[in-house]
Prior knowledge:
It is a single chain. The chain is mostly helical. It has 14 helices and seven strands. It has helices at about 1-10, 15-20, 25-35, 40, 90-95, 115-120, 125-135, 160-165, 175-185, 185-190, 200-205, 245-250, 265-270, 275-285; strands spanning about 60-65, 70, 150, 195, 200, 210, 225. The strands form three sheets. A three-stranded antiparallel β-sheet has the order 1-2-3, with no helix packed on it. Bound molecules: heme C (2 copies). One heme C binds near residues 227, 246, 261 and 262.
Amino acid sequence: MLRIAFAGCAMMMSICGGALAESPVERGGYLVNTIMACGNCHTPRDAGGKPVAAQAFSGGITFTTPAFIATAPNITPDVETGIGSWSDAEIRRALVEGIRPDRGHLAGVPLAAIMPANFYKALLPDDLDAIVAYLRAQKPVRNAVPHPVYKAAVQRDAYPDAEAGFSRAGLADPVRRGAYLVTIGHCMECHSAWSRGASDYRTGLGRGGRAFPAREGSPAGTPPAIAANITSDPAAGIGGWTDAELRRAITQGIGRDGRALKPLMAYASYAGLNDADLADIIAYLRRVPPLQ
Length: 292
Ligand code: HEC
Ligand code: HEC
C-alpha cells in the first residue's frame, strides 16, 4: 500500500513533493550505512566475518598500532555502555573534532586517529545533524568494549578538502559533490601514498600503495591488502576504466580483470549508494590528478 501511495506521489511531485523529502533519520541512515560505512568498524562480526545485524553499532574492531590499541566503541543509545547519555553537541564534537565529552572516563581526551574525524570535519551541518538523529533512533544494545590504551599523542592528519570545507550551494557541481562524498567516505585515507606512518595527501593523493596487515577483530583470516592507485592515470590508475567497471569495483568489489577485491574495501556498504552519488564519485575520481 505504502509503496503504491509513494509511486502516486512521485508522479504528482508538485502536489505532494513535501512527502517525498527524506527525513533526517533516513538521510542519516543512508550516509551511515553506505558511503560512511560506520558499521564496518563499529558493528561486531560473527566467527564467519559477517556483521551481526541484531547488535549493529554496539562495538567492533580492535585496532592495534604502534600509537594505540583502540576498539571501535558502542555507539548505540545504551546509557551505560553506549552513547545514550551524550548530548547531541557531544556526539557532533566526537564526529567532527574527534574529542570525547568533557566528563566521565577519559574526559576531553582525543579519540585515536583511526576514527576518521579529520574527514568528517567536512560534513555539512544538516548531514551531521542527520547522522546524530539516526544514531539516536537505533536500538540500544548493552555491550561494553575494552578501554583504549594510548602510547603516543594523537596525530590526526589534515585532509585538504575537509580543511577547505564544502557548501550546499557548491554541491550543485557534480565534481564537487563527488569530492564531498569521497571526503566523508575517507576513500583517500586508504588510497593515498603512505610515508612515515601518515597518508601523503599533498603529493600522493590517490596514488595507492598503502599496505594493510590482517586485522584483529576483522573478518576471520582477512588477508593483507594493498590499496590501489585510483588517480586518473590511464595506466597506473583508473583513467582507462569505463564507468561500468568503476561502478562494479566500488559496489561489488570486482576488479577490472574480474578478480574479487579484499573486503577491506567497503563495497558491501557502497552497494547501497544511489546512482547519482555513484556517478558523482566517479566524476570526481576522473579529475584526481594522475600519479604513477
Ligand atoms: C575506520 C574505523 C572507524 C570508522 C569508519 C568509524 N569509526 Fe567511530 N570510532 C572508531 C574507533 C576505533 C573509535 C574509538 C577510538 C578511541 O577509543 O580512541 C571510534 C569512536 C567513535 C565515537 C566515540 C565513542 C566513544 O564512546 O568514545 C563515536 C561517537 C563514533 N566513533 C561514531 C562513528 C560514526 C557515526 C561513524 C560513521 C559516520 C564512525 N564512527 C566511523 C573507529 C571508526
Ligand atoms: C579501509 C580502506 C579503504 C577505503 C576507505 C576505501 N578503499 Fe578502495 N580499496 C582498498 C583496498 C585495500 C583495495 C584493493 C583491494 C584488493 O586489491 O583486493 C581497494 C580497491 C579499490 C578499487 C579497485 C582499484 C583496482 O585497481 O583494482 C577502487 C576503484 C576503489 N578501491 C575505490 C574506492 C573508493 C571510491 C572509496 C571511497 C568511496 C574507497 N575505495 C574506499 C581500500 C579502501
